[in-house]
Design a protein that fits this description.
Thermophilic metalloprotease-like; 8-stranded antiparallel β-sheet; 5-stranded parallel β-sheet; 24% helix
């Protein structure tokens, strides 16, 4: 398989710097046909560091959050490090959670492209980590997050007592997990409590870049009404099979990767500095109580964000 020097180099950064793979550690790469080239690049980089590495290819999942085959879930628990470049996300699955509990270090790379790997893996992850931890500290001292944005977002998300998660791209300790490339501070708002309107004007997971903003009414912690153009119709189709739980306000996140740009692929989009995202569906991985085979993030541009009474972002400019 033809792997460019740039992709190989980005894969080395992922394996060595982000995952901190050490001599003697066993690594599993899970991929599917659309992302096979990335899978092989990560495999080759791991092999060339002298580690035992297995590559398995699964059939593409239908939705983000759908479980991999049972045999793969077992395999995930038997290694030290798992890398998942797959077309649909394995982040919010019981398989990933069970392996993390066993102390396996896991990076998911849903929908990643060679361009994203090369651009975002070359960011300064120590700076990203610093920025992300600072936001997490502030989030954990906050009762309510409020967001307003030019496209019409005006929403209040109660978060009191919820643990904030720092996706820093540094997964070098037992049980750490997250996306690669990455850079976000995020948490699960309290179930049943968010109120307002979320207008997605950046991109939407599984939909892509939004040409006509998607307007989502939020009442008592659930998306009650979705309106807009073709992208809104597509979102309704994606939500439909999952019932009420698929509409749960699952996540509030802030992008902290200064190399990330808006491309229509949520993996990169939700990491863009100066944006926030709100997701619907599964929040079990973030300390919430909703388990559903769907997790869909919507990106909001130029937000003004308050943590209680403190403005921490104004029109997309970070103030902290």
């Amino acid at each position: 398989m033809n792997i460019s020097p740039e992709l190989y180099s980005a894969s080395q950064l992922a394996v060595r710097d982000c995952m901190g793979v050490k001599a003697g550690e066993r690594v599993l790469v899970i991929t599917d046909e659309p992302l096979r080239a990335i899978g092989y690049a990560l495999r080759n980089a791991t092999r060339d560091f002298g580690n035992e590495v297995m590559l398995v290819e699964i059939l593409p999942r239908k939705t983000n959050g759908e479980e991999p085959p049972r045999e793969i879930a077992e395999l995930m628990k038997m290694v030290d490090v798992v890398l998942c470049p797959t077309s649909k996300s394995l982040t919010h699955t019981d398989s990933r959670r069970a392996a993390s509990e066993k102390g396996v270090r896991i990076a998911t790379l849903p929908g990643v492209t060679e361009e994203i790997m090369v651009r975002c893996m070359n960011a300064d992850y120590n700076k990203i980590a610093e920025r992300t931890f600072r936001l997490c500290d502030l989030l954990e001292q906050t009762s309510v997050v409020r967001v307003q944005a030019p496209a019409g977002t005006d929403v209040a998300l109660p978060i009191k007592g919820r643990k904030a998660h720092a996706s820093t791209g540094l997964f070098r300790e037992k049980g750490l997990w997250g996306n690669l490339p990455t850079g976000e501070a995020y948490l699960a708002p309290l179930e049943g409590e968010s109120q307002g309107i979320v207008v997605v004007d950046g991109s939407m997971a599984s939909v892509g870049v939004v040409r006509e903003p998607i307007s989502i009414q939020v009442k008592d912690g659930y998306a009650t009404d979705v309106s807009g153009g073709a992208e809104a119709k597509r979102l309704i189709e994606l939500l439909e099979p999952h019932g009420k739980d698929g509409r749960n306000v699952a996540e509030f996140g802030i992008g902290t990767n200064d190399k990330a740009i808006l491309t229509g692929l949520i993996l990169e989009d939700e990491k863009v500095m100066g944006t926030i995202h709100i997701a619907f569906g599964d929040n079990k991985s973030m300390g919430g109580s909703v388990r559903v085979a769907s997790h869909l993030d919507g990106l909001i541009k130029q937000p003004t964000v308050w943590f209680d009474d403190r403005m921490i972002m104004q029109d997309g400019k970070m103030l902290v």
